[in-house]
Structure formats: structure tokens, C-alpha cells
Design a protein that fits this description.
single chain, about 170 residues, mainly alpha, 6 helices, globular
Length: about 170
């Protein structure tokens, strides 16, 4: 049951999270609230997925799996706190001078790094599918790199330097 619940929650969480991010980037809604709720629901589903899959794997490798679970779980909780604060506090300093956006970003980075660790632990234990563990590791790493590039402003600097087609 925990395996079925974890797998279903992982699929639902991934679809909700990515849908919320995509719709938010398209600026379909005037406010971020509807997309923030979808992202929050996706994040919660991903946490449920981690719990379900961890409990299944922990039957054979409890210490390794629960240690690998801790980092993405803490990151997920932090990102949820930041996401809710974005809707309630706004852009004001929130925790230790960090804005809600920064808190959400820190949580998101911890979740991605923790997901890669969870994938490595899953790959090592061989309890669940090794190709699925590899996909999770690759997906987490690629998303981490994409977000780092976005935060660094490399794409924005390239657009600024590009010559204009107008005379």
C-alpha cells in the first residue's frame, strides 16, 4: 500500500508542481494565488510520495533511507512555509531578514538536492526500480542547474548583449 500511495503521490505531485510553475510563468492569472495553491498542493503530494516510498524501502535499509528522506522532507517543509508566506507577508523580510521568496528558494534547492540524495540511496538499496532512481537523480540535477542558471542571470545578460534587429 505504501508503494502504491508513494507512486501515485509522486505522479500527482510532479504534475501539479510543474503545472503550477508553468501556468505561473505564462502569467495567465493576474495574481500568483491560483498557481501558488497548485504548487503548494504539488509540493505536499511530493512529500507524501517521499514518505510512502521511504517507508517501503526502510523495511530493508532503515537508517540509509530515513537519512536520505530527511533532507528533501525538511526542504519541502521550508519551501511550503516560504510559499504560504509569499501570499500572506508579501515581499517584506520574513525569517532572519530573508524574504518569503528567498525562503521558498532555499527550500526548493534543499528539496532538489535531497531528491538527488534520495535517488542515490534508492539506487544503492535496489529495493525500487534502478532506472526510476536514475531518472529522479537526473531530473533533480537538471532542474537544479536550470534554476541556478536562471538565478545567475546568464540568460538575461545574453539577451541584453544580443544585437537588435531594428535599425
Amino acid at each position: 500500500m505504501s508503494l502504491r500511495l508513494g507512486g501515485s503521490a509522486a505522479i500527482l505531485g510532479g504534475v501539479l508542481f510543474l503545472s503550477g510553475l508553468a501556468v505561473g510563468q505564462l502569467k495567465v492569472f493576474g495574481e500568483a494565488f491560483p498557481t501558488a495553491v497548485v504548487i503548494l498542493a504539488g509540493t505536499a503530494a511530493l512529500l507524501i510520495a517521499l514518505v510512502g516510498l521511504s517507508s517501503f524501502q526502510a523495511r530493508e535499509h532503515p537508517r540509509l533511507i530515513w537519512a536520505a528522506f530527511a533532507v528533501p522532507a525538511i526542504g519541502t517543509v521550508i519551501s511550503c512555509i516560504g510559499l504560504v508566506a509569499m501570499g500572506t507577508v508579501g515581499d517584506r523580510p520574513f525569517i532572519a531578514g530573508f524574504s518569503p521568496w528567498a525562503v521558498w528558494s532555499i527550500g526548493l534547492f534543499a528539496t532538489m538536492a535531497g531528491s538527488a540524495l534520495f535517488a542515490l540511496a534508492t539506487y544503492r538499496t535496489q529495493v525500487l526500480s534502478r532506472p526510476a532512481a536514475g531518472l529522479l537523480a537526473v531530473g533533480s540535477t537538471v532542474l537544479f542547474v536550470i534554476i541556478l542558471v536562471g538565478y545567475s542571470g546568464i540568460g538575461a545578460r545574453a539577451r541584453v548583449r544580443a544585437p537588435s534587429s531594428r535599425s
